[in-house]
Amino acid sequence: MAAVFTVFNRPRGYDQTQKKFTLQGTTAITGTYTNGSGITPNLSTGILQQDGSAYVLPPTYTGSNGPGQGVPSKVDVDPVSGYVINYVGGALFIYTAAGTELTTGTVPAAISAAGIPTTLTYLRG
Q: Where along the chain do its domains lie?
């Protein structure tokens, strides 16, 4: 099972303010989904650029009240073909539009075939 985030080409894929930065791109989710556990993406070193090379994440806030190095404070994943994807506690959970979590099994083709628009928000280091 895999969830891979690919950043859009600049300048569209990166935005920075004094306290945070955001990355915009697409997420590809493939493999087997596990009900109750979701899918755990690597959003610190598992990010790709458009050419497939690794994206080097800028320093993120590591203070005692922050999420930690390379951990996003917020992840927004757009709904896809009747499914809603939520990021909770470091994992992506997939629900039907009716609010029922997917059962354990292969990720639906409507999700695995899509490049799902996603925004990652990090606190600046």
A: 2-123
Pairwise CA distance, residues 81 & 56, whole Å: 31
Instruction: Report yes or no: 48 and 6 within 8 Å, Cβ to Cβ.
Output: yes
Q: Are 20 and 58 within 8 A, CB to CB?
A: no
Q: What's the pTM?
A: 0.85
DSSP for 16-83 reads: E-SSEEEEEEEEEEESEE-TTT-B---TTT-EE-TTSSBP-PPPB--STTS--TT--SEEEE--BTTE
pLDDT digits (tens, 9 = 90+) for 63-97: 888 788 888 989 999 999 899 999 998 899 999 98
What is the phi/psi pair of residue 115, to 5°? -95, 105
